[in-house]
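Checklist before submission:
- one chain only
- standard amino acids only
- sequence pasted in full

Submission:
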Amino acid sequence: MSRLKEKTPLLEKLKNKYRLTISNEGTFDEVLSIRLSRLNVFTVTGLFSILLIVLVTLFIAFTPLREYIPGYPDGEMRRNIENNAILVDSLINELDKRDRFFQGVRNVIAGNDFDNVVQNEADSIVDPKYKDLSFSTSSNDSLFRKEHEEDEKFNLSLGNSGKAQGLASVHFFAPINGLVSNHYDSKLEHFGTDVVGGINERISAVLDGTVIFAEWTLNTGYVIHIQHSNDLVSIYKHNQELLKKPGEYVRAGEAIAILGNSGELTSGPHLHFELWHNGRPLNPEDYIKF
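Returned file contents:
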């Protein structure tokens, strides 16, 4: 009973009604009058606080403000994580295909029984039903080969594709596989081909050669020049990063830079590739398939 008596006065105090009056200071006229209790004030204040906390939480969770939370990755970092995950998956698939391919080659060399070899049907090199076929050269095939070789023995047109003199037999490695966005045009003094590729894609050397220039320039960003045989020079502009230094020897197909968007004379990530022979510009598309 004593505890009840102690709690009752507090509850009564919370329920006691009060009047909040706002009066005009000059005329003492009543402008606003509000009738309330302590319990009402505590209830309204608590609900308002809870609503404010919920709104602030939603505002931070579903707006870019969440990136300012310590430890939360920003947009660029999330994109890099997604791109790396995609690249890793692609790499795993390619490695798996390569392993199956080499396994098939080993089976062919070792003469294994393909009926007992577990292999992906899409990557199979030899169909099991053709494993007993004989590929010995027939007499008719030998006669045909001999006649054909005799006819072409003195044919001077072989290997001549109408390219610049001395370059007809040169095999160029594509610096990047992508979409050509701007073609070679000597009238507009655009002495190269612009190729758009993927993010962070590698730029490869088109031939064996020596790096003679690898520096930053204001208009074309990171640029690298390679001197090749046959008085050829290849130029790669607007790179994001250079992987080689002047004086280094590179092989055809070797990575020399990363695709980028550097320099003032660029409107997006791409490679500006030029090919020069004896000091004269060539149309790269006449020699390379991008």
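Reviewer check: Residues 179-286 form a domain with the Glucose Permease (Domain IIA) fold (CATH 2.70.70.10).
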